[in-house]
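Input chain follows. Return structure tokens only.
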Amino acid sequence: ATPDTSSAKMNGGIVGVAINGVPIFGNFAAPGDDIFQEAATFDRCGGHPQQQGQYHYHSEPFALSYDDANLIGVMRDGYPVYGRKDADGSTPTLDSMGGHTGVTADSPSAAVYHYHLNEQTSTSPGTAGQKQWFLTTGTYRGSAGSCTGCGM
């Protein structure tokens, strides 16, 4: 009834979970690394393991979504994340957190806030101009819930 809209910066580790149970990490790499260079290590499903072997997504998980409106998962602030499109097939205009308020396939009669995959362009010296579809912009719309074992 009263959504949490106290936006907060995402930290390293798990920022959400995909519907297949795979952790979602933010649109950033480990300190000192460039996520756009790291994208070359993503497998055909759009994920890869981190240093300790934990498989995760940063970007479009092709086993779940590809240029569509499919539900991908839920972020730690409780808001869902969908593919690139809205339920009607249009490309949404997103806010600075990578989401907007509108109907979804899971909420067809009531507009709800939700995230979408969003295309970002690198400004880092070694990868400037490269584009990648990420699951986050690095900012939650609401407050992230606690998570045991999330590396927080």
